[in-house]
Amino acid sequence: GHIANGTSTIRVGSGGIMLPNHAPLVIAEQFGTLASLYPGRIDLGLGRAPGTDQLTAHALRRNLAGSADNFPNDVVELQHYLREASEGQAVVATPGAGTNVPLWILGSSLFGAQLAAALGLPYAFASHFAPQDMMQAIALYRERFKPSDQLQKPHVMLGYNVFVADTDEEARYLRSSALQSMLSLRRGNPIQLPPPVEGLEASLSAPEVAMLEMITRCSAVGSVESAANQMGEFLMRTGADELMCVSSIYDHDKRVRSFGLALEARDLLPQKAA
């Protein structure tokens, strides 16, 4: 709500609500409130993973019967609450009913791709940190997509890392913060985003370097020109309809500048790719 209130034209969405942790009616009313305050600008991204441990999940929902296995039914129930209420409907989301907040299915596996296709919903894939199944998921989603009231043809959004600076060298240096964070997470010791360091890759083992390259292969790293080339190749290879850009840079001003330069890189793309 704070972001929507501070802007006037952009769409604002969740990326995302882990639905197994919540009752669909509660989410319908929360996002119905946002949609009533900012009509036509709110999206609702839904994830299947609990995103936490069982004790925290229990504290969030109280009833662990709301598990990931019920996710498809929970999504359909949520859709029901966001549509116009029918006469005599016993449970009505207030606010929420009739807002028709657009839903997105988020995921990093083939399950989400199949569900989004079956329900005719747009699909956002977490390729910015889990790109392994990206191409297979995109193909499966497009192949099995069934048109719906919300969406007539497949729509794919891909997560994409951007580390853009004045030079390629500076961009690689700024990226070292994200690499350190990812490495610590894989070692079982998650940390807050640390300051960048020089020569990080040289201090790592070959398996660690290979692991980081795999995780971050959906990225643009470099100057505006270098980023435009990488971004263009990625868009042509995937046919993505949208990119959700992430810039995990330690310094706030440099992170903001990275987003601005990424926008300049986008403007250099051929119209077909952009």
Describe this structure in words.
The chain is α/β, with parallel strands linked by helices. It has two domains: 2-159, Luciferase-like domain (TIM Barrel, Alpha-Beta Barrel); 160-267, no CATH class. The chain is 43% helix and 14% strand. It is built from ten helices and seven strands. It has helices spanning 2-5, 24-37, 54-61, 71-82, 110-119, 134-144, 168-186, 206-215, 224-238, 252-267; strands spanning 12-18, 42-47, 103-107, 123-125, 156-164, 219-222, 242-246. Strands 1, 2, 3, 4, 5, 6 and 7 form a seven-stranded parallel β-sheet that branches. Helix 2 (24-37) runs parallel beside helix 4 (71-82) and helix 5 (110-119) runs parallel beside helix 6. The longest helix is centred in the middle third of the chain and has 19 residues, at 168-186. The radius of gyration is 20 Å and the shape is globular. The relative contact order is 0.10.
Q: At the first level of CATH, what is the class of the largest domain?
A: Alpha Beta
Radius of gyration: 20 Å
Average pLDDT works out at: 93
Overall morphology: globular
Largest sheet: 7 strands, parallel
Low-confidence stretches: none
Count of separate DSSP helical elements: 10
Distance between the termini: 29 Å
Q: What is the total tally of β strands?
A: 7
Order of helices and strands: HEHEHHEHEHEHHEHEH
How many domains?
Answer: 2
Decide which structural class fits the backbone: alpha/beta
| CATH architecture heading of the largest domain | Alpha-Beta Barrel
CATH topology of the largest domain: TIM Barrel
| Helix content percent band | 40-55%
Q: What is the CATH superfamily classification of the largest domain?
A: Luciferase-like domain
Strand content: 5-15%
